[in-house]
Amino acid sequence: MFDVDILRESIPVIASAALVTIQLTVAAAAVSLTVGTLSAVLQVAGGRAGYWLSRAYVSLMRGTPLFVQLLVVFFALPLLGLRSQAFFAAVLAIGLNSGAYVTEILRAAILAVPRGQVEAAVTIGIGRLAVWRRIVLPQAAITSLPMLAAELTIVLKSTPLASVISVTEMTYAGVLIQARAFSAIEVFVPIAAGYILLAQVIARIARMLERRFEPLRG
Amino acid sequence: MSVDWAALVPYLPDLARGFAVTVALTFGGAACALFMAIGLVLATSAGGPAIRRSVRIYTEIILGLPILVLLYLIYFVLPQLGLRIGEVAAGILTLTLYYAPYMAEAIRGAIASVPAGQVDAARMIGLNPVQIFIRILLPQTLGLLIPPLTGILIGLAKDTAILSVISVHELAYATKRVVSRTYTPFEVWALVAGLYWLALSALEVLMRRLEGRVTRFRASGASA
Questions:
Q1: Domain A4-216, CATH homologous superfamily name and number
Q2: B186 contacts A153? CB cut-off 8 A
């Protein structure tokens, strides 16, 4: 039932596809953090237009399946005159989707920074941008660290969806091997273990960062 | 960028049929997951250390496992172990196994938030355990339960789209078939995204109404 030869053949393929999974996760997380931070700031300090723009973005991203968003982005790229590149589309879709959740996380953390700090900073002549960059956002990032780490795990768990637009990450590599070897157990059990392992790595790094920043938490 | 929306009209009945299946999968899956979640909560509160440990390991695995991988494990690996399973059953089983631990967590959190003193007080004034559950615990935990359960339910509803990869005939699957005939993937997928958005927004509003109904006692209450 469990064919060791298939396992031996599939492990290197799965391992190299795991690298694609990691690249997808890191790239999508970068998009997510950037867009999420901008959107959170816009919602808190962007006036009425900024507030509604950010709300609309969050509602659209949270109110539709990532599966559908991936396909919309993938097929929208050529219409915008860009070459439809699957990996790029996956990074963009997963990143934009997660950015909506990061918006909500950071918005709450930004509002938790005492207003007096901002007033004091402005009074002693620190510029608006510097107040955000050096006072509000660093504190918001530290308070929301556990939730941002959980969101990173969700990004990792979303990457298999990139297989629907044929990105050969870990899960799609498994589907391809499975179709050739006519056996699934030797393929999907190690893949499942791979994801659980990667999720554990994220949890470890998060705990390390939390301990590192513990003295700075309010 | 030319978008021909009129070309989609003949396919609307196909999409409507897919939508009906998506709704059925959502509520069917949520009901099974809720049932299993209650089982998990009971197992951790009343079971022995071995049971508690297995529930913890199972929860830990689900938290790190992508739902698509779970779906493939169930749909491709179970038959190899001698358990033949259809697409719809595999889909429901996946939703159940994946979402039950999240729901169990929400239930545990809600129950823990009711002060133990209330139960003691209720017993003192002569309420029996069934009355305590129905009149004291349930009304209070329901209000606390609905917000997290709404989030989980919406997550589950969105994940039904993933079941299209094993050919469950829900909305995303119907959409793929329409695309294969119209060759207008962007228009069709954008339209369907709008449909999901409307349906999920309606679901959210509905759940908020429900929350309002079960928490109306709070408005007239002395505190909080």
A1: MetI-like (1.10.3720.10)
A2: no
CATH code at B13-215: 1.10.3720.10
pLDDT tens-digit series, residues B161-170: 999 999 999 9
- Nearest by CB to B186, which of A63, A65, A72? A72
- The answer to whether the CB atoms of B68 and A178 lie below 8 A apart is no
Residue type at A39?
S
Q: Where are the domains of chain B?
A: 13-215
CA distance B208 to B203: 9
Q: Is A112 on the interface with B (CB under 8 A)?
A: no
Question: Half-sphere exposure (CA, 13 Å, Cβ side) for A190?
Answer: 25
> What pLDDT, on the 0 to 100 scale, is given for residue B222?
44
Which stretches in chain B have pLDDT values below 50?
Answer: 1, 221-224
ipTM for the predicted complex: 0.92
Our CA-based measurement puts residue A172 at a distance from the nearest CA of chain B, in whole angstroms, of: 10
> Phi first, then psi: what are they for A169, rounded to 5°?
-85, -170
Give the position of tokens 């050969």: A168
- Per-residue burial over B119-158, b if 16 or more Cβ lie within 10 Å, else e, is beebeeeebeeeebeeebbeebbbbbbbebbbebbbbbbb
Where along chain A do its domains lie?
Answer: 4-216
Phi and psi, residue A217, nearest 5°: -80, 140
Q: Which residues make Cβ contacts (< 8 Å) with residue A130, sequence separation at least 6?
A: A121
The pLDDT value given to residue B2 = 58
**B161 interaction partners in chain A (CB closer than 8 Å):** 65, 67-68
pLDDT tens track for B131-187:
877 788 778 888 889 999 999 999 999 999 999 999 999 999 999 999 999 888 999
